[in-house]
Amino acid sequence: MDGDAQRVAIDGGADVVVADLEEFTAAADRPAARPRIAALMAQCRQRGVVAAVRINKMDGDGGADLVGVMPGSPDVVFLPQVEAPCQIVALDDAIGALEAAHGIPPGSTEIAPTIESATGLLALGAILRASPRIKACLLAAEDLAASLGAERGPDGIELLHARGRFLLECVAAGCVAIDCPCTFRAIATLEADLQLARRLGFKAKCVVFPEHVAALNLAFTPSDEAVRAARELRAAYETQRRNPIADAGLWIDAPRYHNAGRLLERHEALCRGTPPTIDQPDSSTRTS
Asked: Is CATH 3.40.50.11810 the classification given to domain 3-221+280-285?
């Protein structure tokens, strides 16, 4: 674990920081990294950031990872390459035993599966219902594309169906859907991807580049101007319902009215600091 990278992550403006013991930590470095990540959890909480860690699969180094990081009481444990509910059950059992051993309130450690394959995506409904610890789920980008044999491009159309299916399953299970990261670094590409994510219905997204966090926060948090416009549109629609107008150019259609309502619900929930209704998951689960 790079100390400078940790500081950048905590200071970067993300709501959740995920320390990675899988892809970004070599196997030989994991024994030393685990206690450093356990210490990082407290640093995150001191800064008001949700503290998370991604371990390895439980049939690999995941068990040792968990033993090493649980003294830090991570808020969320991300599990990679999930393809079946039994993987979640095994992790749930292991976390429960370590919560008891370290005096951590039982059930307080969340699990966030990472879906990285076609097999995992098709089993997602059962995976999300395998443990009450699951409150959010992450969709991968590059590994999923490799699983599908898809050719990657900046417009991301090759993952459009998978992202839609992922969101559908998460909403049905009452789980926050964390959209896959934009792994193209250009800000213009990211902004187009964020616009697509919002259109699809995502309220949370993973990022891998520190400079992407600000753009993500801007895209997923209603601005004062957007809130004001939404209120004006809702008021105009109600006036239109009482006194229909003939000019089609001035007509406000129902989709715009409902979109404005959802934006206002999201704004009000974020102001309260409480999660919105189930089809409007809390945006505070943005990750980096």
From this structure: no
* pTM reported for the whole predicted model: 0.88
Taking 50 as the pLDDT cut, the residues of the chain under it are: 275-288
Distance CA 41, CA 33 (A): 13
Looking at residue 286, what is its pLDDT?
35
The DSSP symbol for 222 reads -
Q: Is there a contact between 182 and 190 (Cβ–Cβ < 8 Å)?
A: yes
- Contact by Cβ (8 Å): 212, 188: no
Q: Residues with Cβ < 8 Å from 234, sequence gap 6 or more?
A: 257, 260, 261, 264
Domain ranges of the chain: 3-221+280-285, 224-272
Residue 264's Cβ-count burial label (10 Å; 0-12, 13-18, 19+) is middle
